[in-house]
Design brief:
390 residues; alpha/beta; 6-stranded mixed β-sheet; two-stranded parallel ribbon; 8 strands; 11% strand; elongated
Length: 390
């Protein structure tokens, strides 16, 4: 007999690995959103749930908890029993099992709403397939604040029994608000087993956030490095539960992503501190242009500092200097920039002296120099470069 002629007794290990890969892909996509410079600043891998997204808010950190669940059969639907632990055949709702509700997929997510309360933004069930109609109907009833569905009524009635809050006992309206944090995302393409939707989406996000136009092989390497990073952050027993250690051992932040993208973290930080809302993209553009001109790390960081100095100067003086003069100043910078030949080759600091001198002379003659230094003038030229190349 040959190996393929007899079916194995079980394939649980292969199935478990496929599900873990789906979880890894979902966490990777979530981590890439950090590059967007939105409120998302960190993604925790296999800690408290499959992954957790942390966001910065005025009131402090807020969290989104994700469970990733897949099924091999694409035409299957999640049932009300699988998601909530409800018995669909029981006519008398009082005969439902509170333990089954608490231990269900939804129950494990809802526990976060009481453990983290105000800091819990949302709990999300992410899947590659769809839900049966009864699940959808219950979800609509809860999201609309109707709470007339028998299952919704039962969830609200049993909520404090199933999910006791460690600090206080929520009232009915608070329970409704906590239940509304439960969200379902069905038929998610990038967690499907064939991975057809994952690599194109991840590659597009990298380009959108960083302006790095990668070849197919380059993109694939970066994405594989990202998946490996998620796997590393998802493994190992945590014994030190300090915030610093959890961040280091179980989460992904901007520094780790910049390392994968080979973008200077120092240049990024200079731009971010200077108020550049697209610091990742700006650092990426500056680095690619400067490196193509043969620049080293020190020159790249200098350019980032100069770009930041210009942005800060412009922001601080925009209201105190006549708007007509600001427009005229920008026009002079644009004119000098357009006169520069072989832009990508010229952007080494050593070759910019004549252009800076020309710009300074023109601004002095037209009484537009104000208190601008050469570093800020270089930053002004670089800001145009970034705008054109972005």
């Amino acid at each position: 007999m040959k190996l393929h002629e007899i079916k194995p007794r079980e394939q649980a290990g292969r199935d478990t690995l496929a599900r873990y890969k789906a979880q890894t892909r979902a966490a990777a996509i979530a981590a890439l959103a950090i590059l967007e410079a939105s409120s998302i600043d960190r993604v925790y891998c296999d800690y408290h749930d499959d992954f957790v997204v942390r966001m910065i808010a005025k009131s402090g950190f807020r969290y989104k908890f994700f469970q990733v669940k897949t099924k091999k059969k694409q035409n299957a639907n999640w049932t009300i029993n699988e998601i909530f632990g409800f018995k669909s055949t029981v006519k008398n709702q009082d005969k439902q099992d509170s333990d089954a509700i608490r231990d269900s997929f939804a129950g494990k997510l809802l526990l976060h709403t009481v453990n983290f309360f105000d800091s819990c933004e949302e709990v999300v069930f992410l899947t590659n397939i769809n839900f049966e109609d009864r699940v959808e109907e219950l979800n609509v009833d809860i999201k609309s604040s109707t709470f007339s569905d028998p299952y919704a009524i039962e969830l609200a009635k049993r909520f404090n029994m199933c999910f006791p809050c460690p600090t206080a006992t929520p009232g009915q309206q608070e329970i409704h608000n906590l239940l509304k944090k439960l969200t379902f995302e069905a038929d998610v393409e990038y967690i499907k087993e064939k991975e057809d939707g994952f690599f194109p989406l991840a590659g597009q996000k990298i380009f959108d956030y960083s302006e790095i136009d990668l070849s197919h092989s380059e993109a694939k390497k970066i994405i594989k490095d990202l998946l490996s990073l998620v796997e590393r952050k998802s493994s190992g027993i945590i014994s030190d539960f300090s915030e610093a250690n959890i961040d280091q051992q179980a989460s992904i932040g901007i520094v780790e992503l910049l390392e994968i993208l080979a973008i200077s973290a120092d240049a990024y930080e200079l731009l971010r501190q200077g108020g550049d809302v697209k610091a990742v993209k700006t650092a990426s553009v500056l680095q690619r242009i400067m490196e193509s001109a043969g620049a080293g790390t020190a020159e790249i960081e200098l350019c980032a500092r100069c770009k930041t100095d210009w942005d800060v100067w412009l922001r601080e003086n925009r209201n105190s200097i006549n708007e007509i003069n600001i427009i005229a100043l920008n026009a002079e910078v644009e004119d000098v920039f357009s006169s520069m030949v072989a832009v990508t080759g010229a952007f080494r600091v050593s070759k910019l002296r004549e252009h800076l001198q020309a710009l300074r002379t023109r601004l002095v003659d037209k009484k537009l120099i104000f208190d601008l230094q050469d570093e800020q003038l270089l930053g002004a030229l670089l800001s145009i470069l970034v705008r054109i190349k972005s």
